[in-house]
Each structure stands twice: as structure tokens, then as C-alpha cells.
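Q: How would the C-alpha cells look for this protein?
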Amino acid sequence: MYTNIQPNAPHGVEYDGVRFFLADVAPSGARRLIVRGRCADFHGEQHGDDLICPLTAENARALQARLPWLTPQPLGAHLSFGFGDRIGLATPGHVAALRSADPAGKFAPIFAQQSVRENDRLHRTADAVMIAAIWSVFAEDWRQPWGADADHVKAPAHVAPFVASGYTFYTIDPSDHVDNAAQSDDLATLRAKCDALPWEVLATDYTTLRAEYCDHAIDLGRTTLHFDEATLLRALAKYGRAVIHTLAITATLRAAFGDKPFDLEMSVDETDTPTSVHEHYFIANELMRRGVPVVSLAPRFVGKFQKGVDYMGDLAVFEAELAQHVAVMRAFDRYKLSIHTGSDKFTIYPIIARHAGASVHVKTAGTSYLEALRIAALRDPAFFRRVLETGRAYYEHDKKSYYLDCRPENVPPGDAVADADLPALIDQFDTRQLLHVTFGSILNEHGAALRELLAAHPDDYRAALQRHFARHITPFVA
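A: Here is the predicted structure in C-alpha cell form.
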């Protein structure tokens, strides 16, 4: 017999004559959706006037169909923030951070965000990420527009599961097709590489491009670009195949969406060599001339953007380069700059905000997971030690797809650290990077126990996320 069916804070929703709310239902204490009123499209057990429904994907979709604000939507060129959630419990803290640090609602959030790589490592589906976001958006009564990002899509075959699950933002990552060697190739090698491009796909020829880029200065308003032949050849050799690959995935998206809108980002940030301002212009111009509906573009900026740690590099050089990239962006006036590996880059947020204003997308990924590990270190030191040892064991295997300065020999074994000092390890450079990139191994081995711990301490996790992300958000809205 169910008892004590009362709404959880902060709300219940009445819509079209039916009331929906969440409750922790006795005797089990499990959280359930309560549907009060006549409604046939939910599945659960009837208890008097209430239908008591488990938090399944099927019931989430039924609720989404009833409450329009539970459906993600394209955000366009609006200032936006991508919150990664590898565990599925972080959205309440993300909402708390937005409400505390951005009460005017300048940021549009992306709550469902996961890359193909992350899902593969976690054995998670695009739909599971979406369903977790839907339940949290409902629980937090978030009614402003929000998006869902299929991150780092590398192949046309990756698209279908995200489209089926209702994702609205697609980050195309053609970095496997970027020729980093072109950064230092001599002219003869560059010419040979450009001759070998599939020009029939580009639907142009080198003579035409040389006339367009090299025969006159390109006025960007605040600055002027001058392409010589070496600069054009380098841009073509380095990024020509990446543009072609972007066109192929864009065609797949257009076929899937038909007339419905979607957001598209092109990202070349995970590459060895920085994107020059000339190369940025070349990429954007070639995408625009082919009608690719880019709403954000992520160049590879100068300096180091590594996982879970602050920017590493000369701030003056970064600012000078950023100003040039912003000039390119503003000249096209069609997209925003995307800051990938954007978590914890606290020293450069004010610089980005000063130059790019609201024409920014900040993308974070694993920092919410790291804050979950902080709660583990605080609440269950023995469990955190097991997590740390798993990270130490799998680091060499898991680091392979990342650019890191982590020195694992600087990460202490858990049994060498006192309980009171364990939370501080989350902020130690080498430990933070090691834990960040071993997320797959750690969550596959300890994920159920970590979720149980977070469920037992939800206020701790929410508060930690609120503090952490307020530091990310405030520089852009102050």
C-alpha cells in the first residue's frame, strides 16, 4: 500500500486539468511521478485518484509531450553554456548555478550533452542522457529554452541515435581529417597535398580560390587579412578535407531533419596545431559559401586547453589572437565562438567576455563528474580511495585520446593521504587530470556506488556544482 504521497519541493505542475508532481513514495521511499487526474498515456499503478509512475523513459516522453518546456530546442547564436553530465544527476546543480549566478537569464543552457566517445566509454546511450535531463528539468521546474548537444560527432553514422532522441545541437568534429603536418610543410609539399584534394566535392578549383583569397585584401572591419599563396595553400592542405567531412555530416543532418531547424557547430579544437586567423576565415568562408548552418565554430586557440585545469599559456598572446578571431566572427555575423575544453579556464573567461561579449558558447564536460568525486572524498573516504586506485591503474590506457601534461607519478596512492586531505586532491593538477580522463574506467567500476552516494547527499552535490559553475558563469554576465 502506497502512503505519504506528497509533492517534493519545489513544485507540482497543473497542465490541461492534470496535476503532475514528484514524490518519494512510502514504503520504499523511491521517487515516483504522480499523475493526478484523467490521463491515459502514462504507465504506473493506480492508487485512489493518483497514478504512481516509475521514472522510466516511456513516462518521461509522455510527460515531455504534455509539458512543452521539457523539449529541447535550437538556441541559435544566443550566449550559451554546455553542461556535461556523465553521471546523470548533475542537472539540478547546473540549474542552481544558473539561477544564482545568472538571474537575468543571459545564458541559454545545454543540459543534455554527451559526446559519442563519452557514451561509448560509459556504455550509455544518447536516449539515456536525454531522459536524465528531462526528469531533472521537470524536477527543477526549468521553463526557459534549453538545448541538447550531440557532441564530437565524427561520422555520419553517429547522427541517427541523437536525432531519434530529440537532440537539437550537433557538434561536428572533423579533427581526424585535419592535416597537422601542413603547419610546417614546404610549398612543394603543400601544393602536392592541395592537388590531391577531391576538388569535385569542393565544387571549385584552386585558380578560383587563389583569385578570391589572394588577389585583394579582406576587410574585417577592425582588421584586414592578407592572404599570400603560402597562407592559402597551408589553409587548404590543413583544413580542406575537414571542410569536406563537415559537408558530409551536414548532408546527413539535413536529410534527417528535413525542414526542422537544428544547431550545428564545427569544431577543430582537438588538434595539434593552433588555428590561425587566416585559417579561421578560410574555414568559415568555405562553410558559409556552401550554406552550412553554422551557429558556432571552435578553433584550436593558442596555448593549452587541457581537461579539468586552467588555461596554460601567455595571456597577452592569447588575448591578441582572440581579438583577431573575434574580428573574423563579427565579419560574418552568423555564428559565435565556441570555447571547447572550456571548464575551469578561469584566467581567460574575462578576456573572452571582454572581446566576444554574448557571441560565445562555453562547453564543459567532466567537471561535474569531478565535483561528484569531491563529494565522495568528503563523505566516504574509503570509497574515494578505491576510485583513486582505479584511476591510477587505468590512466595509461585511458589517456590515449587526450592532450595532457599530467604526471601520474605525482598522484599519491590513496592510503598515503589522510581522510581530511582527500578532497584537496581534486584540485591537485596531476590528480585532477588523471581522474578526469579515467572517467570511463571509474564509472564503469564504481558508477552505481557513486550514484547511490550522491543520491544520499543531493544537497551536497547541488551546492558543490552551484559554487563551481557560478565561477564559470559570472565573468560572462557581470
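Residues 72-179+227-366 form a domain with the TIM Barrel fold (CATH 3.20.20.70).

The first strand starts at residue 12 and ends at 15.

Upvote if useful.
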